[in-house]
Every structure is written in structure tokens, then in C-alpha cells.
Here is the input.
Amino acid sequence: MFAETFVDLSKALSLLGEWQVVLLLILGTVIGLVFGAMPGIGAIQAMVLALPFTFGMDPARAMFFFTGIMGAVAFGGSISAILFNIPGTAVNAATCFDGHPMARKGEAGRALGISATASGLGAIFGIMVLVLLIPAVRMIVMAFGPPEFFMLILFGLMMVTFATRGNMLKGLAAAGVGIMISLIGFGEVTAVLRFDFGSRNYLWDGILLVPFLIGIFAFGELIHYAVRGGSIANKMDSGAIGGVREALSGAREVFRYKMCFLRSSVIGVVIGILPGIGGAVSNFVSYVIAMQTSPHRALFGTGHPEGVIASEAANDSKDGGALLPTVAFAIPGSAEMAVLLGIFILFGMAPGPFFIREHGDVLWALILGLLFSNLLTSTFGLLGARWLAKLTFVNVRYLIPVIFTLGMAGTYVLRENVWDVAVAVMGGVLGWSLVRFGFPMLPLIIGYILGRLAEKAFLQSLQMSFGDYFVFVRFQGIFPERPISFILLVLLVAIFLFAVLKKGKKRAAAA
Amino acid sequence: MRVKGTVVFGLILLAFIGAMVYMTLFGGEDGEGYPPRARLVPLIIGLPTLALLLYAIIGEQWLPSIIRRFDVSITDFAPGLEDEELAALTADSTPVGEAKETEDAVAVLTPVGEAKEPFLGAISSGFRKYVDFRGRASRSEYWYWAIFVFASTEIIKFTGASNLVYLVVGFVTVLPTLAVGVRRLHDTDRSGWWILLMFVPVVGSIVLFIWLVRKGATGENRFIAEPMAKVARLDTQSPTKNQLERLAEEGAEFDQENLAPGHHGEASEAKRVLSLLGWMVGFVISIIFFGFFICVPLFTFFFLKVAAKASWGTSILVTFFLFDFVWVLFGQYFPAGLFAGWLFDGFVPPL
Here is the structure.
């Protein structure tokens, strides 16, 4: 077993000595960066479009190409998230909350340095976990059924109350609006058409993630630009735009907030392993948890390094986690992994328990490819940050048409439905109005992303238990039937009680 | 009475959620609401949201202070907040994602004369000094000319015009290109004959390129005075009054409109939002009718020229490169390409 692993590893390593393979890796990385930074399109489109070029290639060599794309996309997305408040891919959405305020303060170079380092190290962390966890993955995947998912998502939804700043009621209302928007379309379990508003086709699929996110972040920000004028970062003299040094100071931040980085990476890996949740959730959960556990809670949302670390570490470490069930059980942990699964099959390799034994070299090619592609992107990020950061000093008048056009094109090509473009513009109006009129944006987006998942998990749990609402907490003797769900519920209640008691104490102190 | 934006926005959200709750209760296929399971979550979420929104609208505006006292905030719920953080939170109630308004007027200074329209200036001087191999040329003069020549040949290629047009443009631009190159070399304090380096394969053009992008010699050299226009450059974007006065004395003209007081005023906010929304909606509607390839260049160019008041050169350059990028990445690489427009048989799915 050990000898076989070693042989496979050395086979994959020897491939890296070929210049064609290195070229493929670099090419994939560049494609990944471009596709990541463009709003709307991401790893899925890049991989699908790159697929025909790899026909006839040896699978292990082709994997270097695909992992180059996969590893680079998450950092590419953070570039546009930090510079322009556009989540380049859905997994970068939470980076906007602290990355863009940093850019506004004239610290875009530092934010990019943080993102590059956190992404790179996060991915390496995820890969290490992947290598170590291969034997235990089956247990983890099997332990999470719909009731556990529901409790986990409920946990995420409860975070909304902590993520809200200012008026709590407006925060809760915004979360409710987000959940209601997520319920539009055919119900996942009940197959009932809900909230169609007389639509005969479009709303049946619901409001799609990418147009909505592009609208609410990017186009909303454009309206904000138009009102504000000037350039994104106004203080040209504040931060030392001193080249690599600034990016390296960002890299140092990651080591300063070690705990935040480790916690976020673990969250990313766990959410990556769990099938069906997807990367778009990982960065939000990690961001909100970082916000709640950080001693600098009040600084979140104003351009605090931990916010960027949390989001970026989670969204890159999830790749390692998601790769695990994909190769071991053919259960894709995210949409990108589903594409990768298809690629395996196209290359005539059956994913599943025998994959590691029969195609060990391909697995190691995947691991090494991810590793080196992340190293490449991080180096690129640290070196290129100074030039990218200059974009924040361009007058926004010139940026508006460019960002708007690219956002529209990215929204359209996703599924070639021209109405998505209109939805994105409406999302922009919604996003701008929310911020302008004091409704916090984070709860709405968390509600929108988690609402549908929560409903699905809840109704599936009920189906499992034939309509028994106690499926989450049923006991068998003295042991809970589903221990994880039970523990999560206890934690939920404990946190809630703690908050209420704390409030009572504060009231008493005030009186 | 001036209606507050918060109320209007809150009412819109209220109507939206209200319609959803109504559909849950009575909508459905048979007019008796959705089946029980599909009704569960929308009602659990929808009714409280409705109440909260109502409260957010009314409480914000008209509720007497007695009721407002029960308003809770994050400080009541978040466990373990320390006192100084509480102070920070209450002081800084800026919602996530909102920038603090800066009061500084943001100045975008544009230099005078030739440099005000650097692109057009470079083109006109290129033609004006058609065979002028004396004197010096600034970096902007040379490189804007180079971009102009490159762009015009690209456009001709793109339109698929005959080779004759291509040839004519080549003949017209070859002499001024040589001349401006010689003048640029003079600017870097070198003899114009170095332009012949371009005939040395590979190495020659690299060396030439490096020379041509280097900054010119300051002051006078053997090829007369420095060509740089008197360009007003500010290190900070919020100039002080002194700086502005000093620049005015030096004769710099700048964009007065951007410096005018009230630039960031409340009154103009609605106008700015509505104008940008007008552009956006207009773009979407024209895309539905005419498709991306007609609308992207038109929108970009007109937005830059009309709304952003950019110079001709900037407008044309940004439009050209943006269109090129969109055309290559989305039009060529994606097999299905971009939307062609309803008038050109693009498929508009039913709503």
C-alpha cells in the first residue's frame, strides 16, 4: 500500500519535469485567473470550455490543466471582489465585505496580499487534510443526513442576528426577504410552483445565484459610485503604495491572525466534504463565525484583515475537502467537482472506491496540480498586487461602463437567458437601496443562500421520519438517535439562552 | 410633505413580501393556497418578515418614543462584547458595505492645451509634423500615435475591408510613424538614426522598445527644449485651496464641475441615481432588441462621452479595448456566444 502510494506520487512528480505539463499548468492558471476575475463566469465554464482541448491527452497530464484552472479561480475572483466589490465567482462574495472597504482606504495592495496568502495557504491546508483524511471520509459523509444538514443551516441562519449591525429589526427583516426570494420557483421537495407572480417560464427556476449576486454587489456598487464620484480609493497618500512591500505586509496579517486562518480553513474543508452545500455557503459561514469569535468584532465590515482571511481561506480550502468525496465515492462536493466527475468519466476512469488504487497517479496529479497552481497564483498575487491596486485610483466614471458591460456579458453567457441581465439590474437597485436605507446586506444574502437549502433539508427530514417533527431530537434509550443533530440543537439553544441572559443582566445593570 | 426614501423602499419590500404571503394563503393552482408542506416555510418566514418590515417602516418614522424604547440592537444580543467595543459599535452604525461619505471635493485635474486631449493631440501633431524629423516628442505623443496606428489597422482588419484600404492606410501612416519615432529618440538624447535598429531582428526591436518607453531627458538637450506640456499633477485627489490657487496661477485649467461645491449634495443624489439607472435600463432594453455586439460599443462610448464627460481619446480607447476583450472572450471562446438581439433572431425566452 505504502509502496504503491510512493510509486504513484513519484509518477505524478516526474510529470512535473516535462515542460509541456508545466506549460499546461501555467496556462490553466492564467485561464483560471481571467475566468475567476470576470463576474459571472467561473471554474465550471473554464473547465467545460477547456475540456475539448484535452482530448487525446494522457489523463494525468490533463489533470494538471484542470487543477490549474480550479486552483486559480478562487483567487482571481477575490481580485475583482477587493478592487471593485464584484464577487468574481460566488465563493468570493464574502470577500467583498471587508476586502473592498480596504481598497477604499487605499489598502488594495495589502488586501490582495492577504487574499493571495490566505488562498494559497488555505488550499494547501485543504490538500493536506485531503491526504490525511482519505480513510475517514466515508464516516463523515455518512454521518450527515438531512436532519444534521438542517441543524447546520439553522446554525448559519442564526448567525444572521450576530452579523447584523445597527438596527436588529431591519436585519431580521432583510434576512426574511432574502429567504422569501430564495423560495421563488418550484419547491425542491414538494414540486409546487410558488411565487410565480404570473410568470409562465422565467421564475419557475427561481432567482439564480449569479445574476442576483452580480446585481446586488456589483451593480449596486456602480450606483454608489455614480453618487459618490471620484475614485474608489480617495486617499492616495495614506497607504504606502510601495510595491511588493505592501502585499507582503498583507501576507504577514495572515500569520498574525493564525487562529482565524486555521478556523476558516477547517470550516472550508468540512463544508467542502459535505455534498450538496457548495462553495457559496462556505465563505459566508466562515466569515460570520470569524466575525463572532474575533476580539475585533466591531471592525468587521470596515476593512478588517480577518474578514478577508476568513472568506479566502475557506473558499480555497474547500477544494481539497470537495475533492475527497468526489474521488472516493463519486459524490461531488460542489458544482466544480461535478464537472470534474464528468471529466473523469470522459477519460474512461470510474470514480469510486477503486479510483485511488487504479488511478493513483491521476489522484496525485490532481493534488500536485492544485498545490502548484495555488503557489503560482499566490506568487502572482503578491507580485502583481501593486499594479492591480492602481486600478482603485482610476476615476470611477471610466470604470462604470467597463464593469457594467463585463457584468452583463458574464450574466448572460451563464445560461444564455437574456432576462437574467434584467434581473441583475434589478438586483443592483435592491442592493443599493438596502445599503442606502439602512437595511444590512449580509443577512439578506445569507438568508437567500441558506433559505432554500434549509427548507429542502427540513422537508427531507420530515419525509425520513414520516412527518414526525421530533426527528431531530428523538432518543433511543438514553442515547439520541442522531447525536450530531442533537448536539447542534443543544448548542443553538445554549447560545440563544446565553444571549438573552446576557441582555437581562445588562438591563439589570442599567437599571 | 417630503417622503423619506426609507419609507418608500420599505413599502416596496412590504408589498413584495405581502404579495408572497397572499399567494401562500390563497394563490396556488386551485385558488386555495399551496399544499400544506409547501406552505410551511413561506408562512413561518413570511409573516414575521411582514411584521418586522412594517415595524421597520413605522418605527423609524412615526412611532412615539415610548414604543421605540423596545427597539433592540446588536448590542443586546451579541455575547461577550466589551465596553469599548460597545462604544465603537454605537458610534459607528454604518451598515456593512456602506462607505463613509467623504466631504472632500474630489478633483480630477486635466492638464491644459494639447495634453487635455492627449490622444487627439498626439494624432493631430502626428499629421501636422508629417515629415518633421527635427525636435523632440514626448512619450504620450509617441505612444498615443502608436496606439492610433495599431487600432486603425485592427479596425480595418475587423471590418474585413479589402487589402487596398489596408495598403493605403499603411502608406499614409508609415512616414509620420518614422518621424515621431525619430523625434522620440531625440527626446531620450539619442540620434534619430537609431531608428534603424528595428531592422535588427528580435534584439533590435527590444532595445528600441526600451528606449522608446524611457522618460525623456529633462531640460534642454541638443535637440532643443523639453516637449512636455505644462501638466498639472497632483499627488492627492483632494487638493487644498492653496494647491488649487497655485495651479491656477500656473495656468492649469481643470474640470470646474467636479470641484463645484454641492457636488456630493443630497439634492443631486436622486438625480445621479436616476440618471445611471436610466443608462442601465436603456442598455438592457437595447440589448434585448439589438444584441450585445451593437450595444456594448455604443453604450460604452456614449456613456463615457456624455455621462462621464471623458475626452475623445479616452472614450475611443476604452470602447475599443473593452469591445475587443468582450468580443474575444465571450464572442469567440464561448461556443454559443453573446446574445444577438431580438431583431437579429436572438432567442428571447418567454417570461
Observations:
- Chain B touches chain A through 102 residues (CB under 8 Å).
- The first helix of chain B runs from residue 5 to 26.
- The radius of gyration of chain B is 30 Å.
